[in-house]
Amino acid sequence: MSDPQHPDGPQTAPAQTEALYDELLDLALEAARRAGALLRDGRPADLGVAATKSSPIDVVTEMDIASEQLITGFLRERRPDDGFLGEEGASIDGSSGVRWVIDPVDGTVNYLYDLPSWSVSIAAEKDGEAVVGVVAAPMRGETYQAVLGRGAFNNGRRIRHRPAPPLSQALLGTGFSYLAERRAAQAEVLRTLVPQVRDIRRGGSAAIDLCDVACGRLDAYYERGLNPWDLAAGALIAREAGALTGGRPGRDPSLELTLAASPELFAQLQPLLDELGAWHD
């Protein structure tokens, strides 16, 4: 099997379900490995811009599209009845109950500028619930993975979130929109939040930030504006590492707001971010 065994006891899911999870994990790992190699080794020195998304800052490169085509082609060949949702346009309704949620390059601007914090993010959902997540960060030499109920791992080593510090000593990760109006609102939230915490980091890849919470490199991470492909794999990995994920109080992570943190820190940050209006422009 590709994933280490969960050390906390026997699996409770039916054997047929476990076999499906094993298959999905193996496929996600291989697809992420192939896409990561394509992106790492095939990046042209004069990387061009194929199109723009919501603003001139948010670029779509030829490699984004090539990576998604590689991933979807690989998975469709092996599981033709599955559905797909991808950042670069893949949208297929399947009949198997499994849907793949794909970000072929999470951290596109980092990739464009040859900064190392970019990743390939692949999640598999079963009947609407994320059950497998893989985030490959080739320039960090790391691959994060999680299967529902089995824990989270980085390069085969089990990972856990960092024990919660006081809020004043917490290191938070966040991200900013490509839309100028939303960035201005996010700056206002930061203006109030920064004096209350240790510091803020902005890495540029939501999937990596969520995995950094999972392995204790960040105490918490929040961001407005994440799409399903940005967070599906990383949020599962964070949860399987013992962190909580959510949005506004009582809501799941979403485009409105995504938060990941240890349970104690989550309980402090969620109402604070809600009060500060981190969920609206």
Characteristic terms for this protein:
single chain; 281 residues; alpha+beta; Fructose-1,6-Bisphosphatase, Chain A, domain 1; D-Maltodextrin-Binding Protein, domain 2; eight-stranded mixed sheet; histidinol-phosphatase activity; Inositol-1-monophosphatase; metal ion binding; metal-binding
Polypeptide structure, described:
This protein is of the alpha+beta class. It folds into two domains: 15-159, Fructose-1,6-Bisphosphatase, subunit A, domain 1 (Fructose-1,6-Bisphosphatase, Chain A, domain 1), CATH 3.30.540; 167-276, D-Maltodextrin-Binding Protein, domain 2 (3-Layer(aba) Sandwich). The chain has helices at residues 15-42, 62-78, 108-112, 180-193, 206-214, 228-240, 263-276; strands at residues 49-52, 59-61, 83-86, 91-92, 98-106, 119-126, 129-137, 142-147, 152-154, 157-159, 171-174, 199-201, 220-223, 244-246, 258-261. The strands form three sheets. The chain has an eight-stranded mixed β-sheet, sandwiched between helices. Helix 1 (15-42) runs antiparallel to helix 2 (62-78) and helix 5 (206-214) runs parallel beside helix 6 (228-240). The longest helix is centred in the first third of the chain and has 28 residues, at 15-42. The chain is globular and about 50 Å long. One of its GO terms (molecular function) is histidinol-phosphatase activity. Pathway: Amino-acid biosynthesis; L-histidine biosynthesis; L-histidine from 5-phospho-alpha-D-ribose 1-diphosphate: step 8/9. Its cofactor is Mg(2+). Mg(2+) binds at residues 87, 103, 106, 230.
